[in-house]
Design goal:
375 residues, alpha+beta, six-stranded antiparallel sheet, three-stranded antiparallel sheet, 14 helices, globular
């Protein structure tokens, strides 16, 4: 509640009192350090772990932060400490493999993934992460084979689909185009103004003012795709705000049209999920500041993903540098691809972009005032 009220110093002080009373509580350490990270870290960032007992859960917690900050070797050392006590710890085996991949030790990572998969062979996400290591090691055939096993555990796993597409692209296999369909499946809808508004610009101005009030006033969470920005924590849709519900009606209409116009193909991983009805797994607002961007990522929990542009800076008019544009097809890690970005879309206020959730997407950094979206 203190964080929602933007009383961050008081929230930090309360966390410190709670940690003093419960130094082994992994959730308190996570929440405390996450707030420090969003506030720009500060000198106490991650030090709560060093003052606490070196329990398994706290070692896992600190390693989580280090891995997301791309400090793979430091995270690897913590996972090794856990594995020294229990060589079969599933979480540590998986985390260790991922940390080695972050550190760029891709062959070591593949061997570690083999050990992790021997203990957890029905984990599609783990197969996908192993596939990413194989791609970075220059072995797309192995990456595809690993992720096909992952799809055996979860036929709609978005991480596995994203890796298979990249593997086929590295092999210059035309199956990637059939799977990803950058021109067919990425679609743009310029929405009509909701009822009660004659211009979408007027509606978005009011909506933007509301969204500005619900952003926390801190930076991004450590495991989010934003850089130089913030993202709302709670679901926007269904929370009762009239402006949000008005734009939801227009988004509903566009999503329904998008689904209705998809081809029927029971053999296609994306098209085979086509159905009459849909629901929202999540809904949030992202606000990027000057020089902000989204790192390339996918959405593991979805089927169709979206970006609705509420407010965009003038810089998006730059068609040469494509400042602030959303781009598709480029992964977060470096692999041998001929054309890394397969398609890019220019943002515009009132524009909705829909695309498969397994498709790699990110944004180009921009200069200027904040850019606000609903996703």
């Amino acid at each position: 509640v203190l964080q929602q009220l933007k009383r961050h110093d008081e929230a930090l002080a309360l966390y410190r009192r709670m940690l003093a009373a419960n130094p082994s509580d992994p959730h308190l350490h996570q929440f405390y350090n996450d707030l420090l990270y969003r506030l720009g870290k500060g000198e106490d960032y991650l030090k709560s772990y060093d003052r606490a007992p070196r329990t398994r859960d706290l070692l896992l917690g600190k390693a989580f932060f280090l891995s997301h900050e791309l400090k793979g070797e430091q995270a690897h050392a913590l996972y090794e400490e856990i594995l020294a006590g229990d060589p079969n710890d599933r979480d540590a085996l998986a985390g260790n493999a991922r940390a080695l991949a972050v550190a760029g030790r891709h062959q070591d990572a593949l061997a570690a993934f083999d050990r992790a998969l021997a203990r957890d062979g029905r984990n599609a996400e783990l197969f996908a992460d192993a596939g990413k290591a194989a791609l970075q090691a220059g072995d797309p055939e192995k990456a595809v084979a690993l992720c096909e096993q992952g799809l055996g555990a979860n036929p709609h796993d978005q991480n596995c689909l994203s890796v298979i597409g990249l593997g086929w692209r590295m092999m210059q296999d035309e199956r990637d185009e059939r799977l990803s369909g950058y021109d067919r499946f990425v679609r743009v809808f310029d929405l009509e103004p909701p009822e009660g508004f004659s211009r979408i610009e007027d509606f978005n101005a009011e909506l933007n003012a509301y969204l500005n009030s619900v952003h926390a006033g801190t930076g991004e969470y450590i495991n989010q795709s934003l850089r130089q920005g913030s993202q709302t924590a709670a679901h926007l849709f269904g929370a009762g705000h009239p402006l949000v519900e008005k734009i939801r009606e227009r988004i509903d209409e566009a999503v329904a049209r998008y689904i209705a116009e998809l081809a029927e193909d029971e053999t296609h991983p994306f098209l085979s999920r086509r159905a009459r009805d849909f629901r929202y797994h999540g809904s949030w607002s992202a606000r990027l500041r000057d020089c902000g961007f989204h790192v390339n990522h996918i959405h593991p929990a979805g089927w169709i993903s979206s970006a609705y542009y509420v407010h965009v800076p003038e810089a998006v008019r730059d068609e040469k540098e494509r400042q602030g544009w959303i781009k598709f097809g480029e992964p977060i890690f470096d692999i041998a691809l001929k054309d890394k970005v397969r398609r890019a879309i220019q943002p515009a206020a009132g524009r909705l972009v829909l695309f498969p959730s397994f498709m790699w997407h990110g944004t180009v950094p921009f200069r200027g005032p904040p850019r606000t979206t609903i996703a």
